[in-house]
Amino acid sequence: MAQAKISAKASEGAQQQQQQAAGGQLRGRFYRSTSMADRSSRLLENLDQLELRVEAFRDAASAMEQEKEILLEMIHNIQNSQDMRHISEGEREELNLTANRLMGRTLTVEVSVETIRNAQQQESLLHATKMIDEIVNKLLDDLEDAKIRLLSLYGACTSDVPAGPIDQKFQSVVIGCAIEDQKKIKRRLETLLRNLENSEKSIMLLEHQKSAARQSCNSKQD
Fold it and tell me: Positions of the region Disordered (predicted)?
């Protein structure tokens, strides 16, 4: 009888130990699962914060790219301005040396933001670039026609209501480009139109000066 009681107690103790062990394992699995979820959440939060910094970094680099383009354009415009034509040769030479030095220092800064494109976006970019280049290559043949065509391309790139016609074909091509490429195409057209406007002003001023000179000559003859 005693032996039976001892065996029963031993069996009961063994069952309790098994239950405690099972409970410990469950608790262990539960705690590990919670800990892994916390770690995963923290890592995801860190990556989200890094993504914001990466985008800010790319935006800053893009801004530097634009600043470089603007600086080079401004230096070039000064070198080809009417004011440079109306100073002494010695002063013009000195100013050109300074401008060339500034241009050289600007060109030493290399900033490049690569755009991720699929095959279709790459093809669209090449097509859009070719369409702009074709107009640029004919600028000297017909300045006014080139300006009208560039304005129609620019109208296809802006969300504002354009004053003139829109090149529908160019618009469909630009839509197929990556967003960053669309912005660069628009900036290039803006630069070209500014340069054309400056050229027209220079031509008008030159014609005005020629007209004034002819009138002065005629008045002297009279």
Answer: 1-27
How big is the chain by its Cα radius of gyration, in Å?
36
Domain 117-212 belongs in CATH node 1.20.58.890:
yes
| pLDDT value, residue 162 | 65
Map tokens 């097509």 to a residue. Answer: 127
Give the chain's end-to-end CA distance (angstroms, integer). 152
Rounded to two decimals, the pTM is 0.66
Angle between helices 168-175 and 119-136 (to 10 degrees): 140
Q: Are 167 and 151 in contact (CB under 8 A)?
A: no
Report d(CA 50, CA 57) in Å as an integer: 10
pLDDT tens, 158-173?
Answer: 877 667 789 999 999 9
Query: Of 80, 196, 55, whose CA–CA distance to 139 is shortest?
Result: 196
Tokens of 221: 């003859």
